[in-house]
Please model this.
Amino acid sequence: CESVEKEVEIIGQKSAETQQCDKYSAAIAAGNIIELNSSMRCTFRNISTTLSTMRTTIGDTPNRPQERGVILESVSGFQSIKVKFEATRMVLHPTEPIFIVPGEETNNGRIVNISAQPFAQGGLRNVYHMTEIIKMSTRINQTENFVAKESRHIVPYTQRLAFHRDTVKCQARAAEIATVFNQLTAIKRKQNIPMVHFLKAEVYRLKDSSSPGRYRYLAVEKSLIGKTYVKYNSNNGYIMRPQEGSTADEIKCIDVAQAFSHFTFEESKQSEMIVDIQGVYCPNVGCTYTDPQIHSNSKSMKYGRADRGISGISDFFESHVCGSCCKA
Model:
């Protein structure tokens, strides 16, 4: 396996971004920028962690990270161009806090197309459309759709993989506890408790001469676009509740999401809690989640800067009321 150095981070902007910033400035001057409609606002609410976390952790500090210069596609009013890169898949080392290139992986052997601008933005991440071209033995290649996530902020040069390490670590830990949850609820399937799944996050290293170190690093996972994406709770105590007119499936999904967060606290012997539960539901599959955040009782922010520790755990319980799934 090839071990990747820890001292690389992406801080540059692409020429396409500069061009689009100019177009956006011109649109503002011409009065052509319109307010987001309700569906767009819902999209932004449903993806990743909330801005309040950033205010809590770094908002009042003199070293507040600088945001990257991006324009959301829905704000600019047009879909950004896609840029082709050679890429290499990377995985987290099983015992060390570093990313490695698996032995079966060919350096720069993948071809991906990434949108120049993000389609969505959360408190910590910019989210891009990505398509990977799968080379086939025939002349016709197949494509697979992904989303690629990058830090919303410019972080120090030495931390360019630390951010992705937190993302991958959170999702791997969530998937581990989800397996236990599914095993324990399997005997209660007749009570209609759906299975819980978490997407697997990996890191793609893009060959990019315009980035420091000549590489750009993105957290990549399969796309959930096209299904109804819902955020069930957050890392600041928000909990979604059924509304008048909610369907039975909607009520069930809300119930299982809150129960899963509660379960993670008990399963970890009250040392951790998985929140920011968000994703999609399919009747034959269950609930598929992405972008979880973990609060730990460690004072060292074990799971990154959105790990709010005991305060985050307390905020959940101030809002949470055990439902039928918790009591099952």
Remarks:
- The chain is about 30% helix and 25% strand.
- Residues 4-17, 31-61 have pLDDT under 50 and may be disordered.
